[in-house]
From TrEMBL:
This is HTH-type transcriptional regulator CynR. It comes from the Bacteria. Belongs to the LysR transcriptional regulatory family. Keywords: DNA-binding, Transcription, Transcription regulation. GO terms for cellular component: cytosol. Signal peptide: none annotated. The gene is cynR_1. Residues 1-58 form the HTH lysR-type domain.
Length: 332
């Protein structure tokens, strides 16, 4: 059994999609399907229920996925340790990041990177997606972390992960004890929301419109952290990225509600200036975050060709829609 087959299965499990996993690994959809079938034959169990939309994991698949994620994290950590023994990095890595990603993912990553490379300083600059793009274009950051990444004439992106959106509320909200929230309960609901100018809000509005649901966003914020604080203080409810509320849901200050009709994922990714030559420290930190080596050419620039192996497709701005738009589905 090859490591690549395990990584492909994890990609399918994370995206709940053969096509998105195929795009991430520069494979055809049939090749991904064949890889999963061979894996199922190898372990002697059905891992994916292909009869549901989006795809779902069987009980065996869920168990296998949880174990594989731990295994792959340990393997990647071992690889980093080995690489660290062979090189000593120094200097500074400058990262532009949107607030939700920076606050949710970067504290642990920077701590791990500092442990491995104590002579490298990671400098973070927070902003909205458009400002992160601007600082990367100016060369004021080695790379940026944004939602809904896309290629432009000056920017090339690498897909990172697809993050589920959840319906989240205060324990004091009237729906807090609901087993499931349907369209009728959402209709006319007063909610905390993202500002209309943000692409994430626009995608949420589109999905609600497809569902035939109208909600009232009485309070709007330009970042997820402020939304979380408002929900806690005012007993509110909102659609938020899953990673943003992990701490609050673990401590019980917020609750995640099942909402089968609202199925949406927020794509996250790295953005780089096309002409930029990345430092070894920047390459190493980006690879740590990505969970696999960046596709880099001999000049230290991103290699947009398929030789990048398992890296997501970098195709000069002709990316398919699902690479830079939200994945949504409406349950009829």
């Amino acid at each position: 059994m090859q490591l690549r087959s395990l990584e492909i299965f994890c990609a399918v499990a994370e995206h709940r999609s053969f096509s998105r996993a195929a795009s991430a690994f520069e494979l055809t959809q049939s090749a991904v399907s064949q890889s999963i079938q061979q894996l199922e034959e190898s372990v002697g169990a059905k891992l994916i229920d292909r009869g549901t939309r989006p795809l779902s994991l069987t009980d065996a698949g869920e168990l296998y996925f949880r174990g594989l994620r731990r295994f792959l994290r340990d393997y990647q950590s071992l690889e980093r340790e080995v690489r660290h023994r062979g090189q000593r990095l120094a200097g500074e890595v400058r990262v532009g990041t949107i607030y939700s990603v920076g606050l949710s993912y970067l504290p642990d990553a920077t701590a791990e990177f500092s442990r491995l490379h104590s002579d490298v300083r990671v400098q973070l600059e927070f902003g909205h997606s458009h400002s992160v793009v601007e600082i990367v274009e100016r060369g004021d950051a080695d790379f940026g972390l944004v939602s809904f990444p896309r290629n432009t004439k000056t920017i090339v992106h690498v897909g990172w992960q697809s993050e589920p959106m959840r319906l989240v509320c205060s324990p004091r909200h009237p729906l807090a004890n609901s087993d499931s929230v349907g369209r009728d309960q959402l209709q006319g609901l007063s909610m905390v929301g993202f500002c209309r100018s943000l692409l994430l809000r626009q995608e949420i509005d589109k999905l609600l419109a497809k569902m035939g649901v109208t909600v009232n966003f009485d309070i709007e914020f330009d970042n997820a952290d402020s939304m979380v604080r408002a929900i806690e203080a005012n007993g509110g409810i909102a659609f938020l990225p899953q990673s943003v509320v992990r701490r609050e849901t673990a401590t019980g200050t917020l609750r995640v509600l099942a909402c089968p009709d609202f199925q949406m994922n927020r794509p996250l990714g790295f953005i780089f200036r096309r002409s930029a030559k990345l430092t070894p420290a920047a390459i190493e930190f980006a690879s740590l975050l990505l969970g696999r080596p960046l596709p880099i050419d001999r000049r230290g620039r991103l290699d947009p060709s398929p030789r990048g192996g398992s890296s997501p497709r970098l195709n000069g701005g002709n990316e398919s829609a699902d690479e830079h738009t939200a994945t949504t589905s409406v349950v009829a």
